[in-house]
# Entry
Amino acid sequence: MNVRAPDTPGARRPSVSRAPRRPWSGLAGAPAAVVLMVLAGVVAEVGAAAAWWAPDVLPAPSDLLPAAARIAGSPRFWQDALRTGAELLLSCVFGVVAGLGLGVAFWKAPGAGRVFEPYLVSFYAVPLVLFYPIAIVLIGINQWSVVVLASIMTAIPMTLNTWTGLRAIPPVYLRLAASIGCSRSQTLFRVALPAAAPYVVAGLRLGVAYALIGTVAMEFTTAQAGLGYQVRYLYESFDAVGMYAYILVIVAVSVLLTAVLEIAERLLPRGRDT
Amino acid sequence: MSPATAPPTRDGCRVTAGSVAVAVIAVIAWEIASHLSFVIPEPLDTFLALGRDLGDPRFLAGLRETLLAALAAFVLAMLIGGPAGLGLGLSRRARVVFSPIITMLNGIPKIVLYPVLLPVFHLGYGSKIVMGLLFGLFPVLINTAAGVREIPDVYWRLARSLRATRWQTLTRILLPAIRGPLLTGVRLAVSLSLVGVVLSEFFATERGLGRIVLSAYSSGDYAGMVSTILLLIAISFALSLFLWRLERRVR
Amino acid sequence: MSSPGTGVVLDDVRVEFRSSGRDGPVVAVDGITQEIPAGGFVSVVGPSGCGKSTLLSVIAGLRAATSGSVRINGRTVTGPDRDVGVMFQEDSVLPWKNVTDNVRFPLQIARVPRAGRPRLGPGHRPGRAAARRRIAQRAQEAIDLVGLGGFERRYPAELSGGMRQRVALARTLAMRPSVLLMDEPFAALDQQTRLLLGAEVRRIWGETHQTVLFVTHDISEAILLSQQVWVMSYRPGTILDVVDVDLPADRDASVVSTPRFNALHNRIWERLRTEAMRGFAQENRFPA
# Structure
């Protein structure tokens, strides 16, 4: 639920440089991560078997995994997953489009950008969750109150990164575009945005991560359906194994999403010309 | 060209005025909206509700509990995240082993772990402080590590050529060199610790502003709910704005 | 090869900048009336901050003159023109495109008619494939011309600074402009690379006979490359001296040891020295 220095306005350096790319270099530690996870599983198993803690505090993985598998086969799970997935997808689409547009607009009109900058920086992604009770009063307890706030959460890093990336373009690229007679849209789409791509993609990665975090957090607070809602529901019905299974699923989904975004970020920036 | 080292320019004043104007327009829009929908409390009623609440000892106790928990979470996040980030930035081996797992943990919606914390740290301060810590830890850790990694190599050579001791290198070169990213981490940790605590209180707690928001919601006291949320947002906004300005000044 | 009205004609060009200070506008370039005949090679030398890059931007149509006019091949310059190629001092090779795609880029831009205005008459629409083939061929010619053959698939990050400026040169040449404007293109390179690339530019000019304006702060480079050197003063930039370089056309770097080269060098340096000191004093706020 946060940011690396390079992505925040100010530190402004995308984590991927254009120098020789090695998409897997950062994943050299992946085996270590797996080992640590397996180790945690073993500790949990042994601890549960030895009754170091009550079973409803942390059920044994050997109970948890079959439960997770059973849940993954149930239609209820797929309804919730679909709901969360749809909220996530909509938020990402809205947020990315709005963020790109605002980032470009602020680049063209820096005065407007500087006026809004304090708000964007202060609401950077997560504090917006606090508005959720207001959103459910205004919109109702449904997917739209989640989508509206999650879209804004996605749009903010997208806006700031797009804007920062466009400001960081070497000025000579724009003089080049002018000298070879690029139109305004050619300058934007074929020179400026590709030049800002590492920042834009970093913003995309953050935006998607925030959309997931925000969506789940809001469902968890109050909702009628969704993966986050199920955790709360099962907690309140004292179904520890079911709850842990859902938490496990959410963690797995977020880990998968993070990995995909990390790899995509390493692959995309070089881009190709059409 | 740091905006804050120079005396406030006319341009800077104009931008601030513009930002204030945005807030004023937002309040006007709110006022208009409150007349269109009965669920939206009027701005004035909301501010009155805040005044009423601030005279209520139960509200003040909740405010105190939330802020204390957030403060504790933030301090813990700094104490753990700062040194861990330094270690991660300095040691290549540590980076290789831990950075994927940190990236993964960072991407998890940590709030779903709250029910896991409850039986271990209990319903009082414990669980929400730990949740606030989980929220605030990663920005400090990741920003510190990134800051250390981005220190130009020539600084290390300078330190060696001056025969600086380890302590001198840390306090005279390393910390000043990473002050920008470090402040970014601090700024994010401040507001995230608070958010983590309040989200925990939304879920289950005995006291705190998050609980007050939810009980105002369920009793239909929308003015009280909005005013409490705005108080939280204002606290987080003021702190991050202050730190953001500081950040731009040191850059 | 020169006929009246062709080449580059500067008529009383003046450029002012609005300054933030209290002194009113800064005059960057003033009263420049000069001509480069078609196919001519002229270098501009001057101290840093003398407005030579500004003058080049005006000729390129990237900046408007405050007064006066520039005509290229008889047409008054009002904006960037595809018949005028510009090469910049900064690394302007786009990092997300490989060498070939960088060189093709301006050709692809030029192919698309701007604002829906067809470049060719109605009914005459060459197939996309044919156009693409022509672009590919032209780009390859330019790549071969600057000696980048074999590097087509490389990305800029894999090339040295000198190689990247070769890419920029190929990109400019691929447009086949009749006028080539070069703004200190090799200033960021080391001395040996600069000599090599200078020789390349001169060889290519010998083949293509484009009109060249070459901005530099290096007196030797100016004399080695060009037929004529314009010496500019520190702000406001005016032309102090026009020096015809009467060295053999097939000269190479060994010419620097000849007495004639030294004489030219000394004449230009004498002119520049006081200007450079004046500029240094003003930029550093010493009492002049």
Remarks:
- Chain A has ten helices and no strands.
- Residues 41 and 61 of chain A are 6 Å apart (CA to CA).
- Residues 1-24 of chain A have pLDDT under 50 and may be disordered.
- Residues 184-221 of chain A form the longest helix (38 residues).
